[in-house]
Design a protein that fits this description.
Layout lengths: L1 E5 L1 E2 L1 H19 L3 E5 L11 H10 L3 E3 L11 H6 L18 E6 L2 E9 L10 H11 L4 E7 L3 H11 L5 E5 L9 E2 L5 E3 L4 E4 L8 H10 L12 E10 L5 E10 L9
Length: about 260
């Protein structure tokens, strides 16, 4: 089973870039399962039913999220009724949505789990305790984990904690792709952060002048989503019949109008 995982889609530019790039990604990688983190898909922060449908129309089977999932209240009923958009499993159990889902892909039943880091983010319980409890309950052929976390050390720790127990631990949230992607010794594909799908001419997807101004002045600033030099970032993982990873490959490609030589 081949997984294509796409990092945080930021606003309309990220959604458009994903839509424009997906045909070539499908042709190049021939994925059996496409999972996309969409927690910044609505105006650069949060998700709505409309932006989720944009991502599904681009080819996603499952959408993961993170700390901005509840930004738009009108999305709460949608999160309750859909089983294809998930929120962190270690949020309070009564919150809208669910923490994992299971889908059929490549002749396997695959669980996709969303977790939030507990360092620097608000959670109801430890992500380590949450995933241990969840793995005792679910019965699937493979498990994919989107670990939406702030701190690199916590992400690395989760990779080692789950090595040999899940197919992949893929970090999201910090929007900057890291260089540590690999298959760990016991067969779990891992990367601290796959990066974002949005404008590289930005500060984490936000217009440079907005984010820089806020940092310099320390005053409230309205953030606008940047739209220049959009790239799609993620990872491809091959999962074998035992439910572990055979390979890991990062994905970084420019969308239409992007500059493949830009840094």
């Amino acid at each position: 089973m081949r997984l294509l995982f796409i990092g945080d889609v930021v606003g309309g530019p990220g959604r458009r870039g994903l839509r424009e790039t997906m045909p070539s990604l499908r042709e190049r990688y021939a994925p059996d399962l496409i999972v996309v983190n969409g927690e910044n898909s609505a105006g650069g922060m949060g998700i709505t039913e409309r932006t989720a449908n944009d991502i599904f129309d681009a080819g996603a089977a499952v959408i993961t999220s993170g700390n901005h999932v509840y930004r738009h209240r009108d999305a709460y009923p949608f999160l309750e009724r859909t089983d294809r958009v998930i929120r962190p499993d270690n949020y309070p159990s009564g919150n809208p949505g669910r923490g994992y889902t299971a889908v059929e892909a490549g002749g396997m039943r695959v669980a996709v789990v969303n977790l939030s880091g507990g360092v620097g983010l608000r959670v109801a319980r430890s992500p380590f305790d949450a995933i241990d409890a969840l793995l005792e309950r679910i019965e699937t052929d493979a498990v994919i984990v989107d670990f939406h976390a702030e701190v690199t050390s916590e992400k690395v720790a989760m990779g080692w904690h789950l090595d040999g127990r899940v197919a992949a631990v893929l970090g999201t949230h910090t929007h900057v792709p890291t260089a540590d992607g690999r298959v760990l010794p016991r067969g779990t594909a891992f990367i601290s952060d796959v990066g974002m799908t949005g404008a590289r001419k930005s500060i984490l997807g936000v217009r440079i002048e907005d984010a820089l101004g806020a940092l310099i002045t320390q005053m409230p600033t309205r953030f606008e989503t940047a739209d220049e030099d959009v790239w799609v970032m993620g990872a491809v993982v091959d999962v074998n019949p035992s439910g572990l990873a055979d390979s890991f490959e990062p994905v970084m490609v420019p969308a239409a109008g992007g500059d493949p030589g830009a840094t």
